[in-house]
Amino acid sequence: MGYNSEYTSHKDVASRIARRFPSKQFNEDDILEWCQVVECDMIGAVDGMYPYIGFELPVVGGRAKLPCNVYRITDVYTTPGNENSRIPFNRLQGHISFGTSSYSKVYIDYYGTPIDLDTGIPLIQTGHELACEAYCVLMMHEDDMSQGRIDRGLYQMYDQKATGEILAAMGSQNIQHKTRGDLNTLEAIKYNMIPKPAALKLLSGNFTNG
Q: Residue 97 domain-assigned?
C-alpha cells in the first residue's frame, strides 16, 4: 500500500513540529517511534490495523525487540509455515521474552499499523496527526523538564495538550476508514513483501537480521 487520503506518515508530523520549534533539535526516528506509540498503545484504532505474517526477529539473550508498528501479536514460532513450532512468550514493553536463550531468531504474526510497501515506513491514520504531534512535543521536552531547562508549568501544558488530543482522537473512532467488506478482504502482508524491512524500525533500536 502507498500513501492515500486515509494515511500519512511521521514525516508530516515532524514537519509540523519543525515549523513550531525551529531551534529545537530532534531525531526523526524518535518521531516515528512516538507516533507509533500513539497509534498502537494509546488510540488503538482496530479497524486501521493490518495483518502481518512471518516477520523475522533476531533474539538476543532470550529477548526480541518488536517492530514499532505492532498492535497485537497472534503467534510466535521458530519455523515459518510449521504450526507445531509455535512457542510461548511474554510481551514486555517493546520486547517479547522467552523462557530460554536457545533461540537465535523467531517469527511473529501480528496486527499492526499499515506501512508503505515501497519504504517499509509505518503510517498513521489521517485525523490522528494532532494527537501524534502533541505527544511528540511532550516527549521531546521530557529531558528539558527533568534537567530544569524549561518551566514545569510549560511541560504540564504540553502534557495536558497531548492527553486532550489523544482522547479526542479516541473519541472519533466511531467514524472509521474501512467498511466491514474491506476488513473481510484484507490480505496479510508477508515479511518478504516488504522491499526494505530494515525501514520498519524495531522499538528503541535498529533492525538487524538474525
A: yes
